[in-house]
Amino acid sequence: MEKDRMVARSAPEETVTSSFASFIHAVRPEHLTKTVRYRSKRMILDSIGVGLMGSTTPVFDIALQYCRELYSSVAVSSVYGRPGMKLSPTLAAFTNGVATHSMDFDDTWHPATHPSGAVLPALLAASQMLPPSTKPNGLDFLLAFNVGLEVQGRLMHFSTEAHNIPKRFHPPSVVGTMGSAAATAKLLSLSMTQCAHALGIAASLAGAPMANAATQAKPLHIGNATRLGFEAALLAARGMEANPVILDDIPGCSGFSAFYSAYHPKPLSTPGDHHEFLLEKQDIAFKRFPAHLGMHWVVDAALSVRNLFINYAGSFSPSLIRTIVLKIPVSKYINRPFPSSEHQARHSFQFNACTALLDGEVGLSSFTESSIHRQELRELLDKVVVEHPEDNVANFDKMYGEVALLLHSGDVLTGKCDTFYGHWRKPLSRESLLKKFRSNASHVFPEEKVETIITMVDNLENMSDSSQLACSL
Length: 473
Prior knowledge:
Elements: H1 2-10, H2 16-26, H3 34-54, H4 58-69, E1 77-78, E2 86-87, H5 89-101, H6 115-129, H7 138-157, H8 171-187, H9 192-203, H10 218-237, H11 278-281, H12 295-313, E3 321-327, H13 342-345, H14 349-359, H15 369-372, H16 375-381, E4 384-387, E5 401-407, E6 412-417, H17 430-441, H18 447-458, H19 467-471
Parallel strand pairs: 3-4
Antiparallel strand pairs: 1-2, 3-5, 5-6
């Protein structure tokens, strides 16, 4: 009996970090429900599509040139939209991550982050890195992707600060790095101890400030998250150690809690009958046009009031409008009265509302230099007044957008959007998601190849070698 008590006392204490490591190591494909598989494959397809579209942007060209100039003797991983070009695995992940977020067209979750772009590029690159005898199959790839999502979501739920539109750190640069480390650790079949060290190493590589939103540097947040999380897993696989309780809340010595206030971590349950993936409960938001998610509320509100105005006046006549009132949440980095660049325009309530009023739509061409600097758009922007109702909070699950036109006649027309099409409460249909993917991918590939990629993602669970997906991109 005394011996038993001694053994019990010497057993390692379970911590939050060890529970995450245990989950990453122990979770199996059979733990993925039909709903989780369906939703995560939609995310993979959309992320590939926006990445391919992003491979046509200037910021992608800068990142690609930078990576090509770095010496590498292991150029085995594919680059989005550049058939035949290969980079080292971590640099390919970085470049493809930059592409994914280069137009702010990638998916968004709640609490707010961009989960797919931080995980998928690392997994695609890693799948090509592994030798033929250990290539992961499609179901293993899908499982690793969901591990990366789950870790990001759980970490976000540990802090009330993380539930609102961010002010300090850009979330994917923090939780995305952790998710990438978890996903690649799973794909590389790391031990439980190595998984814990991968998370610890990733925490030392995480974080980027919100001040770089609406600049060309913001896509680097996703590129670095997917690359550095990947590198954390590779370092752990080679024996590097880190703080084994990095996710725990240790008074006087911050671990992951350094990134978020009001941090209250909880152990992650063992995979099995009692574990429900967050993606099962919380679907994803897919964007219909390339801009910050908050813009989708004001655009739909603006389109609604535009239709009322046309019915009222017979056509859209800006001269009849005295004032445009936007009722939006308080969020400094997306409150930009007169944006001067495409990246600022993608983060401007005012620009997106006025563009929707003027053109009746917001799309890829809305963010060109010629569109941004139109005189007629500037004249509309001059009429905008912003209000911040107390009930309109900076939270993607609670906010709304309202656009009111105060006419010279004294009449007032109002459009309001509580839930835009593409939000998790009103998800895109398969037809709409495929339309977006085909539109994006067709800028890079011919129709036959676009359809091949769709088929591969649809049948990912049945793929014997998941690196075939990366090779097709």
